[in-house]
Write a structure and sequence with these properties.
The chain has 14 helices and 11 strands. By secondary structure, the chain is of the alpha/beta class. The strands form 2 sheets. The chain has a 6-stranded mixed sheet with strand order 8-7-6-9-10-11, with helices on both faces. A hairpin with a 5-residue loop joins strand 7 and strand 8. Helix 4 crosses helix 14 and helix 10 crosses helix 11. The longest helix is centred in the C-terminal third of the chain and has 19 residues.
Length: about 325
Amino acid sequence: MSDKIYCGFEGGATFSKLLLLTENGTVLCWEDGPASNHLLLGLEECQNRIHSMIERAKKKVGIPDDKTLISVGLCLSGCEQQEGNKKFEEAFMNRFPGLTQSLTVTSDTIGAVFTVNPQGGLVLIAGTGSNSLVINPDGTVARCGGWGHLLGDEGSAIWISLKAVKMVLDTEDNFISPLHDTQCVNRLILEHFNAKNKFGILEHCYINFNKSQFAGLCKKLADAAVNNDDPLCKHIFYEAGVMLGNHVVALIPKIQQKLLHQEGGLPIICVGSVFKSWNLLKDGFFSKVNCKLQEYTLLRSVQSTAVGSAYIGAKKAGFKLPINFTKNAEIMHHFKA
C-alpha cells in the first residue's frame, strides 16, 4: 500500500460519504455514514461523525491507527463562509491531532464542481436542500441560495414537501382556491407522517421536526406524479423546476464569458436526488433558463462529491491527484438557441 493516503468527504443533511485513495488515484475504499451538517448537529457532533467515518475506513483497508493521512478534504453542506470554515479546520485539527497533515473545509457545492470539472462551471444542488454556485475559470466564485428550509431551499425535496403540505392545508381551510384536487396528496401526507388528520402533522412540523424525514415525502409525491398522473403533484414539481431555474438565472451576471462560450456552452452540474425526477422538473426549468442563455449543457453527476473533496484537499497539500473527471458526469440535456 502507498505511504501517501488522501481522503475526500462529502457531507450533507441526510447522509455522508467518504473515500480513501492513493497518490496514483487508486481508490482504497468507500465508507457511508450519517448526516454531517454542523448547523443541524452542532460542531462537535459533526466532527465526531467525520472522525469516526475516517477511522472506520482506515480500519477497513488495514491502515494503522497512528498512520497520518497526507490530506483530508471536507466538502460539507452548511459550510459556505470561509471564516467559519477556518474555525472548523482549527477545531478539528486540535481535537484530532495526528490524523492528517492537511485539512480543507469548504461547501458541498464547490466539491460538486471539482468532481466534474476543476476548470469551473455552475453547480445546481437539489437534494434535501438547494443552492447554486458558479466557479469561474479565474477562480472567482458567486453563490445563490443555501439559506436552509426556513429562508430558502427553493426547488429542493424539503421545499416540495412543505409546499405540498401547505397547499393541502390552505385548500382545506378555504384559504386558497384549489388548483387541482388535493385528495391524492392529502392521502400521501397522512400516510407519510402516520397521522389520522391534518392536526397530526403539526407534531412533525414543530415538536419533532426532522428535515430529512420531512423531505422524504418528496419521493412519494414524485411517484404519484409519474404513476398516478396526479395533476397537483405534477404542478408542484413544475414549480420546483421554475425555482431551480431561478437559481441559475440569478448567477448569469456573475459568469465570465469564457465559461459561457466554451464548447457546449455553460456547464451546469446537477447534484441531488430531486434530479431523479428531471422529467417532472424540466418544463418549469426551461421556462426560466432557455430565454436567458444561448447555450448550456446539463450534466448529472454520477460520482460522489467526495472525489472533488479529495482533489481540493490534495491541492491544498501541494499535490494534484490524477483523476479522470470525464467519468464523473453524464449529459442530461443540451440546449442551444
